[in-house]
Design brief:
150 residues; three-stranded antiparallel beta sheet; 1 helix
């Protein structure tokens, strides 16, 4: 009887131990860091562009950061593309500032379909003492452009 009881206890322990096993095969990647900046107020009729394909930044004339963004909007007729720097309570720890890329949507909706757009602007004054890069944000993605090594 003692052996039967011992065998039953051992079987129960093995069964319970198997129930608690976990596998880390598909560990989810960590979520992206939360932005500490808030968006500026957009004017009536402005909206974020659909997608950003690429972006570059470089220091131009003193006090001006030359910015080029290639992306797409929902259709033809978007105009007055602009860059709206996000508002930070303090300089970002990593030196990467966030900018919303916006444009005025057309008064009359045209045929849909992605339409390429290019934005070339000068950001003045920009936070030269802290800036290492700029994160450009659209409706569907974001692209980070770092300052070239000088």
């Amino acid at each position: 009887m003692r052996r039967v009881l011992l065998a039953a206890s051992l079987t129960a322990l093995v069964s319970l131990a198997a129930c608690d096993s976990k596998t880390d095969e598909a560990a989810a990647p960590p979520p992206p860091p939360k932005s500490m900046a808030r968006s500026q107020q957009m004017y009536a009729g402005q909206e974020m562009i659909t997608k950003i394909d690429s972006a570059t930044i470089k220091v131009g004339k003193p006090g001006v950061l030359d910015v080029t963004v290639l992306g797409s909007v929902d259709g033809p007729g978007y105009k007055n593309a602009a860059l709206l720097p996000r508002i930070n309570a303090a300089p970002p720890k990593d030196g990467v500032y966030e900018v919303d890329v916006v444009a005025d949507k057309p008064a009359v909706a045209g045929a849909g379909g992605a339409t390429p757009t290019e934005i070339k602007k000068g950001w003045s004054p920009y936070p030269a003492e802290h800036l290492k890069g700029v994160k450009f944000i659209s409706r569907t993605n974001s692209v980070v452009a770092m300052l070239p090594a000088s």
